[in-house]
Amino acid sequence: MSGNDVELLTRLLAGEQQAFRELVATYQGAMRAVAYAIVGSRNADEVVQDAWLAVVRNLEGFQQRSSLKTWLLTITANTAKTRLKQNRREVLLDDLPGPHGSVGGERFAADGHWQTPPNAWHEDSPEALLSEEELRQCLEKTLASLSEMQASVLLLRERQGLELEEICNLLELSLSNVRVLLHRARLKVFATLEHFEETGQC
């Protein structure tokens, strides 16, 4: 653990309320993102509340083998998966259909970063701002249309910046499956961006 984690944990174990408030302020957003990725927005807040209860109950048993963040997100993921009451689903690589026709792997480099990035957007007028809001709504619809696992991997990687190995552990998926899920989800998002740029519509 980092020095900050050790210091915060010491204060937490001493029962300092301010330390717990700092813990919540620091990690609540990331925990909700994990919960949202797994169970969706309707149950995310309840999952996070249950996860915090589990944190309080198990704080003294924390072995400090990982960072506080990793421990908290693992508890959140386990709580969310319990809420779903369903088994882990592996995605067969050969069975994944190619989305959106010709939008293909040439968009991404081997390391998963953009090879052909979308054009930059400039919000310097009311019309552009309106267009940005319409695009945001369009992207949210695209996210909602993704499979559960695709949305989970995309949100954890792009919104929370988790490493692929961390996502594998949280969602109990193999690295190859995580990479394919992320790739397919990115392709769908890119297709939405491309279509909106060309037509101004979702």
UniProtKB/TrEMBL annotation:
<dbReference type="Pfam" id="PF08281">
    <property type="entry name" value="Sigma70_r4_2"/>
</dbReference>
<dbReference type="Pfam" id="PF04542">
    <property type="entry name" value="Sigma70_r2"/>
</dbReference>
<dbReference type="InterPro" id="IPR039425">
    <property type="entry name" value="RNA_pol_sigma-70-like"/>
</dbReference>
<dbReference type="GO" id="GO:0016987">
    <property type="term" value="F:sigma factor activity"/>
</dbReference>
<keyword id="KW-0731">Sigma factor</keyword>
<keyword id="KW-0804">Transcription</keyword>
<protein>
    <submittedName>
        <fullName>RNA polymerase sigma factor</fullName>
    </submittedName>
</protein>
<dbReference type="GO" id="GO:0006352">
    <property type="term" value="P:DNA-templated transcription initiation"/>
</dbReference>
<feature type="domain" description="RNA polymerase sigma factor 70 region 4 type 2">
    <location>
        <begin position="136"/>
        <end position="188"/>
    </location>
</feature>
<dbReference type="InterPro" id="IPR013325">
    <property type="entry name" value="RNA_pol_sigma_r2"/>
</dbReference>
<dbReference type="InterPro" id="IPR014284">
    <property type="entry name" value="RNA_pol_sigma-70_dom"/>
</dbReference>
<dbReference type="GO" id="GO:0003677">
    <property type="term" value="F:DNA binding"/>
</dbReference>
<comment type="similarity">
    <text>Belongs to the sigma-70 factor family. ECF subfamily.</text>
</comment>
<dbReference type="InterPro" id="IPR036388">
    <property type="entry name" value="WH-like_DNA-bd_sf"/>
</dbReference>
<dbReference type="InterPro" id="IPR013249">
    <property type="entry name" value="RNA_pol_sigma70_r4_t2"/>
</dbReference>
<dbReference type="InterPro" id="IPR013324">
    <property type="entry name" value="RNA_pol_sigma_r3/r4-like"/>
</dbReference>
<dbReference type="InterPro" id="IPR007627">
    <property type="entry name" value="RNA_pol_sigma70_r2"/>
</dbReference>
<keyword id="KW-0805">Transcription regulation</keyword>
<feature type="domain" description="RNA polymerase sigma-70 region 2">
    <location>
        <begin position="23"/>
        <end position="89"/>
    </location>
</feature>
